Amino acid sequence: MARDKIYLEEVFPSPFMQLWLIFRRTPVAMVGFSCFIFLIILAIFAPVLAPHSPIEGQLNMPLLPPAWHIDGDVSYLLGTDELGRDMLSRLMYGTSLTFGLSFIVVIISLVVGVLIGSFSALTTGIKSSFLNHFLDVILSIPSLLLAIIIVAILGPGINNTLWAVVMVLIPQFVHITRYAVKEEFRKDYVLASRLDGASPFRILYYSIFPNIVDRIMSQATLAQSAAILDIATLGFLGLGAQIPLPEWGATLANGLDLFYIAPWTVYLPGLAILFAVVVTNLVGEGIRHALKLRKER
Amino acid sequence: MTELLKVEALTKSYYSRDYWFNKKLTTVLDSVSFTIDKYKTLAIIGETGSGKSTLARLLVGAESASSGIIYLNNQVLKSGSYKQRCQHIRMIFQDSGTTLNPSLTIQQLLDEPLKLNTPFDEKKRTDLIRQTLQKVGLLGDHMSFYPHMFSGGQKQRISLARAIILQPQVIILDEALASLDPSLRSQMINLLLDLQQQMGLAYILISHNFGIIRHFSDDIIVLSQGKVVEKGQTLEVMAKPQHKVTQKLMMNQSFQLRSKK
Amino acid sequence: MNLLDIRNLSIELIHNEQSIRAVDKVSLSMKEGEVRGLVGESGSGKSLVAQAIVSVLNDKWHVHADRFHWRGIDLLRLSIPERKAILSRDIAMIFQEPMACLDPTTTIGEQLAEAIDETQLSGFFWQKKQQRLTATIKLLHKVGIKNHSACIKSYPHQLTEALCQRVMIAIALARQPILLIADEPTTAMENTNQEQIFKLLASLNQLKNMAILLISHDLENITHWTNTITVMYSGQFVEAGTTAQIFNKAMHPYTQALVDSSPMANLHLPAKSRLMTLPGSIPILQHLPIGCRLGPRCPRAQQDCVKAPSVSNFHGHKVSCHFPILQNPKLKKTKRA
Prior knowledge:
The structure holds three protein chains of three kinds. Chain A is mainly alpha-helical. Chain A has helices at 15-25, 27-49, 87-122, 126-133, 136-139, 143-154, 158-185, 188-195, 200-236, 248-255, 264-296. Chain A starts with 14 loop residues before the first helix and ends with a helix. Chain B has a domain at 1-88 and 171-179 and 202-261: P-loop containing nucleotide triphosphate hydrolases (Rossmann fold). The interface between B and C is large, with 36 and 38 residues.
C-alpha cells in the first residue's frame, strides 16, 4: 500500500488556529491584545506592584501634582489626591476593580446566557420561546435604572453593581447562542452525529460548540466594553463602589470638585477608562476581522 | 434469495398549521412497500416533492413513520432508536460541504460512531480508521487533516468511509453523486461497486441522473406524490415505461441519449 | 474575422511571495455566430478565463496575454477604462445560480428596467417610464415568458430557478450583446429545465446571430448544442475542435477519458461493470505538476511530459500533447499553431 506520510512539511491548522494566525498578522489587533494582557496582569497583581497603599494617605502631602510638574515628586509618580493618596496606586487597584470586575461579569453572564440559549435551541415550541424571551424584559431597562432599583432594594455597594450588570448582559448571550445553535443544527453533520447515536448533549459539546465559540467570543468583547462603562458610570454616580474603594468612576467623581486646582485627579482616571474601553474594542474588532477573512478563504 | 430489507405500507403524514387553529393533514408518503436483497441496488426516482428524501430519512431513522413496518433481516426496526439502526443502515448526503464538521479532524470524525457503538479500545479504533480510509482510496495520513483541506470528491469519500466504518448492510445514497464532476463520479461508482462485492452491501440510490441509474441499479421504483406508481427491474422499466409519470421522466432522458452524434 | 482572439492567456495568483499559475497559456478564439463550449472539471480555471475576458477579476489575480483582440481591436493597448467600456457594451454574462444573482429586495420589473440602456429610449423624460415598461415586456417575450404581468411584479424568491435563469438571460440581452458567456447556467437544474434553457440559447443564437460561450463541466450535456468545443484541464489548454471531432475522434488522453465517462459511451457496457476512469484526482493549486499537468495521471505519459507541450494543429483540430492518440498515424500536422 502507499506510504503513510507524504505531506511531512505541511501543517494544516484547525479552524481555531487559523483564526489565531490571521489575528496575529494584524498589527493593530496585536497591539490591542498585548495591552489587554497587560491590563489583566495589572488587575491580578496590583497589590504586589503598587508602590503605595491606595486607601491610607499621607495627610501631609495632599494634592501633589504629577511628577512631570515642577512641584511634583517622583515617588508619587502621578500625584496625589486631596487626602494624600497616591494616584498611581489608586489607578492600579482600580484596574482590578473596574476592569477585573467587568471581566468576571462577562464570564458569569456568558456561562449563564450560553446555557439558557442552548436549552432554548434544543427544545421547540412554547418552552423554547419562553426561555428565549423571559429575560428580554431586562433588555428593555437601561442598566443604570436597573442598578438604581437594585440599590433601592438592597442598598449601595459594588456587589450589587455586579449583579445589575450581569443581569443586563445575559439576554444578549441568550439570543446569540440560540441563533448560532439553531443555524448549526440545520447542517448535515449534526444529523449525521444524531444518526450515529449521540445524545443531544454530546452533539452540543463536540459538534456544535467548537463551531460557535468564535462568534460568542466576539460578542463577549462587545459586552465587556459595555460592562466597563456601566461599572464606571455607576461608581461615578455613587451607586456602585463606595468610598474608599479606588474604582475609576468613583475616583473621577471624587476629583470633580477640585477640577480647577488639581485637574489630574479627573483626567487620569478618565484616561484609564478610555484606555480600557479602546483596548477591548480593538481586540473585538481583531476577532471579527479575522473571522471575516477566514470565511473568505 | 433472503430479503435484506423489507418495507411494508410505510406512511408519513404530519399536521401543518393552515390558519388560526385549523390543522391541515399533509401526507408525504402513502403506503410505500418494497424489498431489497444483498448485493443489489434499488433506485428511487420521481420529480421533486414526490417524497424521495422523506423516504430516505424514514429508512435511516431521522424521522419516525406515522404507520408501517420496516423489517431488517426479518426483525422489526423500532423507530426512534438510533443505536439499533445505525449499525445496519447508513446514509451519505448530497452536499459534502456541510456533512463534515469543520472543527474536527478526520480521525475525530470517524472516531465518533466507533466510540458510541463499539467496545474497541483506542489502538484498535485507530487501526480500523486507517484501514477504512485506505479502503476508500485515501491515505492513512489524512486522519490528522481538517475537512477544509480536501476537495469535493475526497469529502464524499470521507462521507463514504464514515458510512462503511460500522460495517452496515444497507447504504442510502441521497443524491450523493450529483455534485461531483463526471470523472470523479465514475471513480466513486467503481469504488461503490467494489465495496458492494466485498462487503455484500445493498444500496438505495436516489438520483436524477439516468445514466448512473441505468448503469448502477438492478431494480427501480418510481414515486409520484408519495405513492409508488411503478416498480420493477431497471432495464425493463426504462425500456418500456407503463405509467404516465415514468413515461414523462423517460422521455427527457431518452431525448438526451438519442441526440448524441 | 475572428470575434474574439486570445492567445496564451495566463492568470497568476500571488500569495505569500509564491506565484501560482491558475491558468497557464490558454488560447481561445471565437467566430461570429458560433456556439463554443468550454469544458473542464472543477479546478480547470474555466470560470477564471471567462471572468478575465470580461475583466472582473480582482487585484489578487495577475492577467497576462500575448494577444487579446476583440473584433480586430487590440484590447491590450487600451487603458483599463476604455477596455471595460468596449467589453461591457458587447459582452454579457450569465451565472450558475440565478436566484442568488438577482437582487432579492427589488421586483423583477425594476431590475430589468435598470438594465435597459438609456440610449435606446427616445422622447421626453415623462415618456421614458412607459418606454421602459414596453422594452421590459418585449425582453420577457423574447426569452419566452408569456405572462409578463405576473413576472414583473414578483420578487426573485417567488419564481423557480428556471424562470430566474430566463430573467437573467433577459437582463443580459438588454444591451444587445454580440457575445454571451454562460457560466454553467444549468448545473443546478433538473433535466427538463436544462433542455428548455439550452433551447432558448440555441434559438437566440440562430435568430440574432449572437455568439455564445457555454461553460460546463459535463461534456456530453452540451455536445448537442455546440459547434465547437475547447477542453481545459487544471488551467492548461488540452484540446479544441468541432464537436464531432472532439466526441468521436478525441486525440488527447484526457478528452478520451471525459468521453468515456459519459453515459452515452457506457450504454454498451454491461450493467454494474467497472467504468473506465483515469486514476488519481485533480491536482490542488499548491501542488501543481510541472510541464503537462495531466502527467501523473495519464496512461500514456513518458519522460517528455515534464516539459509543457506545445499546441499542434491537425486540420483545425488543435491538441496540446506530446503523444496524441492518432486514429490515422499518417496524419500530418497542417501547421504548428
